[in-house]
Amino acid sequence: MTTQLAARRPRIHMIDTEADALTSLALSKEEQLPQVSELLLGEIERATVHSAAKFPGDIVAMGSTVTFIDEANGAERTVRLVYPGEADIANGRISILTPIGAGLIGLRKGQSIPWPDRDGHKRNLTIVEVEQAARQG
Fold first, then answer.
1. Are strands 93-95 and 75-82 parallel, antiparallel or unpaired?
2. Structure pTM?
3. Which residue, among 60, 74, 53, has the nearest Cα to 123 in the 3D structure?
4. How far apart are the two ends of the chain, measured CA to CA in Å?
5. What pLDDT is attached to residue 5?
6. Are 123 and 115 in contact (CB under 8 A)?
7. Quick check: helix, strand or coil at residue 50?
């Protein structure tokens, strides 16, 4: 990842237990998905970590339903961010182990991030709305 890309990324936040689980997941997929694994590990490393009880409701976490705009084409999409085993793009469930999934985690409503797509082209994603999944605490 270029330092220019890293310098323009907004501050992000994660839930402590999710950051741990996502670190393990990204490390386990380094050989199969090196680009996404590297992107996700970089996001985890730079995130401010919170307990689930203190996690702000307007930030994308695992299980969140998020509406975002792809600034490259103006398309608005609503997806639920899930672990790979739950992914089903036809039903709007996007895996954290995709470039867009890794880019959405930790962003707050209103934030934008420059992010590479599967082909390596940079896209700006802007968060329009975040709805948290019910959490057990």
1. parallel
2. 0.86
3. 74
4. 35
5. 46
6. yes
7. strand
Phi then psi for residue 51, to 5 deg, are -75, 160
**Across all residues in the chain, what is the average pLDDT?**
88
Instruction: Pull the structure tokens for residue 60.
Output: 């994308």
The region, left, alpha or beta by phi > 0 then psi within -120 to 50, assigned to residue 92 is left
Position 72 scores a pLDDT of 83
Spell out where the chain has E strands. Answer: 13-15, 48-50, 65-70, 75-82, 93-95, 112-116, 122-131
Per-residue tokens: 30: 């380094």
Q: What would the pLDDT profile of 81-124 be if each residue is shown by its tens digit?
A: 999 999 999 999 999 999 889 989 999 999 998 877 777 778 88
Q: What's the one-letter identity of residue 115?
A: W
User: In the 8-state DSSP scheme, what is residue 64?
Assistant: -
Judge contact between 73 and 114, C-beta under 8 A. no
Distance CA 123, CA 69 (A): 10
Q: Which pLDDT value is given to residue 100? A: 87
